[in-house]
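Reviewers asked in the last cycle whether our approach scales beyond single polypeptides. To address this, we selected a multi-component target totalling 938 residues and predicted its structure end to end. The input consisted of the following lines:
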Amino acid sequence: MNVVSLPYLGLAGFACLFLMFTDRIKRRYTVFLCNAVFLVLLRANLRDWLYVLVLSGYVYLAGRMLAGKRSRGLTLILCLIPVLGLVFYKYAGHFLGDRILMPLGLSFYTFKAVSYLAEIGKGKLKSRDFLSVFDYLVFFPAFMAGPIHRPKEFFAELRKTGTFDYTDRKNGCIQAGFGLAEKMLIADELSALVPKLFAASSASGVYALLGIIVYSFRIYTDFDSYSNIAIGTARMMGFHLEPNFRTPYLAATLKEFWNRWHISLSTWLRDYVYIPLGGSRKGTLRRYLNIIIVFLVSGIWHGSTAMFVIWGLGHGILRCVEEAIIGRREIPKALRPLFIVLNFVFVSILWVFFRSATVSEALSILSSVRFAPFVDGSAAEIGINEWHWMFVLIGIVIVTDLLRSRKDMIVWLSERPFPLRWAVYAAVMVLVIIFGVYGPGYDPADFIYVTF
Amino acid sequence: MENRNNTIRSFLSILLKSALALALFAGVWYVLTPLFRLDRNIDGDQYRNLPENTLDVLCLGSSHIQYSFSPAVFYAETGLYSYVLGSPCQPVQSSYAVLDEALKTQHPSVVIMDVFTLLPQSEVCYADGLFYKALDMTTGKTRAEAAEAVPNEEMRTAYRYDLIMNHDNWKRMDLKELGKILENARKADGFNENLGFVPMEVTDPVYMPLITYDTSETVELSSDDILWLDRIVNRCRDEGIVLILMKSPFIIDQENTNILHAVWQYAESRNVEYVDFIAEASSLNWFIGMDGDTWHNNVWGAEIITKELARRIQTEHPAASHRENAVWESLLQKARSKLAGSLMNDMNVDPYRLLDEAAKYPSIAMLAYHGRGNTTIGPGENDLLNRAGFAKDFIHDFSTDYYAVAVQGELIQAGSAPFTIEYNGAQIRLASDGIYINGESVCGPGEMQLVFAAPDYSWTNSIPINYASRWFWKNGCDGFDCTVGW
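The resulting structure, written as structure tokens, was:
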């Protein structure tokens, strides 16, 4: 089951309605039931079930063991065990010579398990019962691809009682709906165009250039749409997950970019890798080394191939260079657009390594980039309508990001008069129905980050 | 208490807005669906445009029926109105849906259905889009029900809600002219000028006898096929319609012959007439190459098949004829004129066939007959000449010259001496040395000259005949050079 599916929509709707009428005890059971139904709909196999149940049991017991002890060593050891499980599934295949199928959502709930144990180890969180731990780890909107939300806020909302906040739930529904539209309308369409553009790079280097740009927007909209669906669904259920993206391509520096891109992972790496390593407190060289280690961990977390390591290292090195040149200085307002473009160029070049299977493939794409002559889509076997639509979609992403960078568009829309709001819904429906990617002959691409 | 009331109010609001969102979605879907039916099959629309309850005979099935049954020929033979509502690879369940749709506006006395898609050989033509072509001819409830027959669940949903398949057509639409998109939703105007028949011209008239097989083993139709056949049989019975199952001739193999035997057994068990034109090809003088190709009949083959069906219906299932209808008459006049060009053009060198056709289809027949000692004209030839409009006793009065012009069996002018006549804006001159139209010779040398032409002279076909041949009539290969296949 994909989150872009009727069963998921049905589950989200029922979860929202059931949770309206539950007290804090029933709430835990209701969330547990929804999570279990989600795993069933996901067709989780015995291994998936066993792994997540055993891990939940382990985290529950380890949490109880850590409670009140504040021992760094013990916390580290207990945190390492779930990480070793992740490492085994992600990388053992390389040594055993055979690919080992990873339990669904493992990368994300392992990091959540570490969060839970680390927070208890720091004395910032009380240990919870098994059911609550399971609810946290398997919280279905964020199960497959995050966000890697934090335990403290989650448990507070799991135990919360009080009035039903209709506006908040409505906004969650709007956010999930727009996430769905973003996926079907933009991400999947761009996804279909990327291989065609790269394949045509031998005909003209402009196709390679466009392929890189389109891929950058594809990966952004793909993950952003998932995050919007997840955050929106959680909000419909009364849980508030932190935003995972804040218009990252409007960032003027890499530092800014990582404060806006996959925020839940960035902050997790900051809190549980960078700061424990000493952060910026142990001198400049050590700070640079810590930055590189953090990005290396990020690369390794994304995948087990050398390309992800190169991608992570690339970001780490560029971040260090940027730190050395710019430091804590503000980018002058007049130069900001130029820096935004420059930053986008660096990020996009590194996405080529992220996407490619080998270094030579990545270098081949990058070396074929040309800026002229102007082309149409014929060599890439893209029809004229689809060709124009590609630019329109990128335009839509840029314009909506510019608007989102100024105000919360969900709140803005939810405050509009009923006819205008519903006219917008109808317009989005029309666009998705016509231009959305669905139907026979299509194998709607799963979200990129689900595979991590 | 207040909290609880608020929660209930919110709950109701959510339900109401969810319903509104669903209704909005359904409405948008409903409005958009027909706009994206690009290249749809408009045969259904054109059929529905026919005057209600005027049809006598309806044909269903795959392209095999589309190529083998000519309503123009059928009308020429019987005076009945017929229509072919076939579609490429129309599966039997689609035929049921099409029948259901057809009966909404017409009530024919006879339904003829080709059974090609019951054969394993039909698998070569199966593709998702082909099922859709038949489905496209149906509307409303029939359309939704027809989609139920699609075996694959995902495809079934896509066929039932066809915007799932068609929305992608935006990629090839002309978005500069948005008005054209609206036209997709409009019902097609006008009529099918061939009344559903697909004429295939004769291009390579070689004789190749059709190889047939005896049944080698007893096989059965699938339960699914029987289910849908039963539905068709029962529906026809309920409506008081005579059902005729048929298989038009094509190149068949042993396995498919066995299946056809199972079709025959089924037809016997349900007391339905079944005509196997493959078995009858030889007796009907139907030849591969001359009358059809691997799969389909050409116009000559269609003439043979349709004439035989006409004969059977007239003798065994006399169909109630509808009263003369101006729309049908106009359509048939055009269809027959067009068909005449296909049947009687210079590919056809068989004067027996030509004289028969000259009496039935819009055409001009010109004859320059030079009386000699032995013309070898027998009673059959004399009768054909008379039916074509040449009112002379060629057997007893064989020595007198005869010049004549006839139009579709009606004599326009005749005489024992050459003459010139103006007809339809052209000058026809019958002379002792040949036949001329607007001063140009249209006939080669011969002791007897026959020329057939379209009423507007768009085609001519000349048959010069020498009495010295065993029969001057070029029947089959006798009298002209033809290639024998195999």
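The interface with chain A takes residues 3, 6-7, 10-11, 13-14, 18, 20-21, 24-25, 28-29, 32, 36, 128, 154-155, 158, 163-165, 167-168, 170-173, 175 of chain B (CB under 8 Å). We regard this as preliminary and will revisit it once experimental data from Aim 1 are available.
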